Amino acid sequence: MAQVDVGKSTLLSIIAGLETKTGGSIEITGGLGYMLQKDSLLEWKSIYDNVMFGLEIGRKKTKENTVYVEELLKKYGLYEFKDKYPNQLSGGMRQRAALIRTLAIKPKILLLDEAFSALDYQTRIMVTNDIYQILKNENITAVIVTHDISEAISMSDRVIVLSKRPASVKSIHEIDFEMENRNPINCRESPKFSKYFDTIWKELDVHA
């Protein structure tokens, strides 16, 4: 599938306040977290220092927040690696560390800009499953930018298809797999998955 540049990343940058909008209005309740395609971990810092970095530069490294981050490291399997450096971790573990660094500031909304596209296919599926569970457990709303239809369907409650530039909302699809213990892996195995995929595929400007 050809990737069409409709300004998806620009839209997230505007929401995050990194770029100036030319019109309209944005209303956000609560803090924002932003994850990019690259994990941007600092190679000369330990994993512990990396996940604490956002709190330090924001002058929010309180005892309460430190305990919260340490609990996240324990809960999601990184505490025993806290003294390691990023180049000693797998791609999936690096993404988990980057997510915990973002969650440290306790955002209400998380923006994910092609956050998994640098990973190989198998790792990507496992990481999206991990990230989905973390977001669900921590009760955080996420806005995900992706050109991967399967990823969008398996991770989302709602998929918004944008037109070519100047981008506008082409369609909105409510995603409901009607399963009790939903995750991205078992969603891909559902009979409803291919129906969602085919519907969204036909709406995309795949030959642009």
Describe this entry's structure for a reader.
The chain is an alpha/beta fold and 208 residues long. The protein has a single domain (8-16, 32-203), classed as 3-Layer(aba) Sandwich (Rossmann fold), CATH 3.40.50. The chain contains eight helices and five strands; from the N terminus they run H-E-H-H-H-E-H-E-H-E-E-H-H. The strands form two sheets. It has a three-stranded parallel beta sheet with strand order 1-2-3, with helices on both faces. Strand 4 (158-162) and strand 5 (169-174) form a beta hairpin. Helix 4 packs parallel to helix 5 (121-137). The longest helix has 17 residues, at 121-137. It is globular, with a radius of gyration of 18 Å. The chain starts with 7 loop residues before the first helix and ends in a 5-residue tail after the last helix. 24% of the residues are buried. The model has no long low-confidence stretch (mean pLDDT 86).
